[in-house]
Every structure is written in structure tokens, then in C-alpha cells.
């Protein structure tokens, strides 16, 4: 590969700045001589080519870019793109190669460059898919961390409630707060569930459309797109399950609190109320019945 690139650079050198006797011959009386910009571009190109040959790609890139800025010769874009490719700056290399093909559509090595463009594009899409997967994984880990923290908090609340129940019961506001957590997380789970369903439909629709639109195996771009859609749906499903778990735990806590809450608000300094509000739980043919009763 190195021999091929250096050979290409040599050919471009002949075409750009005169590698043969004709290009170096003195101009005739009616022919304009080389401009200062051409001479400067030639020196920059030669210096950049030498830097590329010894692996100093940053210096080579700077020289090729300056030579192109002075001469505006499309062939220099190939050198710039190849150098960016060596530096693994794939996005920039892809853009430069595409610009070169637009400015010099009749280049002899068009097929080779188009092949490299396709490889770069596939690699960039795969990298974006990995980055998206990493982002979704980070969201999943964060959701699990928050769920674990919420479970610890609920466990601490249950312990405190047990202690308060032993000493006279918990305040009604505590049961209402835990119930509010259950409702809020349940609503979030519903929203995540709807989004998961939409992403899953998008993934299945894309797979069905891809299979119906082509008789050939899917391309790398199609596989990357399908994988990205699948990862999004899977991440949302994880978040939905997490929210459902938190909502369920909070709901159990709220139901448990009903039986450990001091609904009368008794205190040592307040007079005893005329009636006492207590929860009730029963089983009938219609199912489980839960409510509140007044004791007089």
C-alpha cells in the first residue's frame, strides 16, 4: 500500500509541477512563466511529499494543504485525503475524497478512491453505532444506579416506618408521599413504554422494508442502521422496566403504610378525637376490598 501511495504521489508530482523536461523547459516569448504562487506551491508539495515518505503525516498534511490553497489544483486533494486517512481522521478524509471526485471526475484512479470512500463511510457509520450503543448503555447504567438508590431510600423508609409504627404510627403525609412516587414513576413507565413501542415498530418496519426492497443481503449501512434502531428500542425497554420496578416498590410501600399510619394525628398534647379513622381490608367474591372506616 505504501508503494502504491508513493507512486501515486510521484505521478501527481509530474502532473502538478512538472516532472518531465517539457514541464521544466523555459517558456517561449508568448508563453507566461510560472508565477510566484506556482513556485511556492511546488516547494511546499515537494517538502510535504518528503514528510509523508518518512511518516511525518502532520507536517505532510500542512504542506499539501498550503500547496492546494496556493495552486487550487484538484490532484492535491488526493494527497490531502490520503494523509488524513493515514492520520485516521476518517470524517475529514471522506469529505476530501468526495471533493476530489467532484473536482476531478475523470481521475484515472476513480474506482480505487470510490472503494476507499465506501470503506470510510461504512467505518464512520459503524463508529457512530458504537457511540450510540455506548450512550444507551450509559443511560441504562445510570437508570439502574438511580433505581438502586431509590430502593435503598425506600428500604430506609420502611425501616423508619416500622420504628414509628412501634411508637405510635407514621404521619399520613409519608404515605401520601410514597403514593405520589408510585404514581409519578408509573406515569414515567407508561411514557417510556409508549416510546419503546414506537421504537420497536420503527425497527420492525425498517427490517420489513429492507427485506422487501432488495433481493440481495443487506449492506453494512443497512445492518448498522438496523442495529442502531434495535439498541434504541432495547435501551428504552430497560428504562421502562426500571421505572415499573420503582413504581411497584413504591406502591407496595404505600399500601403497607396504610396499616402503619396514625390517621388520627394523635399526640401527647392533643385531646382524643371523637372518632378514629382506620384502614380496612377484606376479601369477598368480587375480590380484595380495601378502604377506610370510622370507629366511634
Question: How are the SSEs ordered, and which strands pair?
Answer:
Elements: H1 2-17, H2 21-24, H3 36-53, H4 57-71, H5 75-86, H6 90-103, H7 110-166, H8 172-213, H9 220-258, E1 276-284, E2 287-295
Antiparallel strand pairs: 1-2
Helix pairs in contact: 1-3, 1-5, 3-4, 4-5, 5-6, 6-7, 7-9, 8-9
Explained architecture:
This protein has helices at residues 2-17, 21-24, 36-53, 57-71, 75-86, 90-103, 110-166, 172-213, 220-258, and strands spanning 276-284, 287-295. The protein is built from 9 helices and 2 strands. It has 296 residues and is mainly alpha-helical. Helix 1 runs antiparallel to helix 5, helix 5 packs antiparallel against helix 6 (90-103) and helix 8 runs antiparallel to helix 9. It has a two-stranded antiparallel sheet. Helices cover 73% and strands 6% of the residues.
Strand content: 5-15%
Biggest beta sheet summary: 2 strands, antiparallel
- Termini separation (Å)? 95 Å
Query: How confident overall, as mean pLDDT?
Result: 74
Strand order of the largest sheet: 1-2
The helicity comes to over 70%
Instruction: List segments where confidence is low: pLDDT < 50 over at least 5 consecutive residues.
Output: 1-15, 18-32
Tally of helical segments:
9
Q: Which structural class fits the helix and strand makeup?
A: mainly alpha
Radius of gyration, in Å, reads 36 Å
Number of DSSP-assigned strands: 2
Element-level helix/strand string: HHHHHHHHHEE
Shape type: elongated
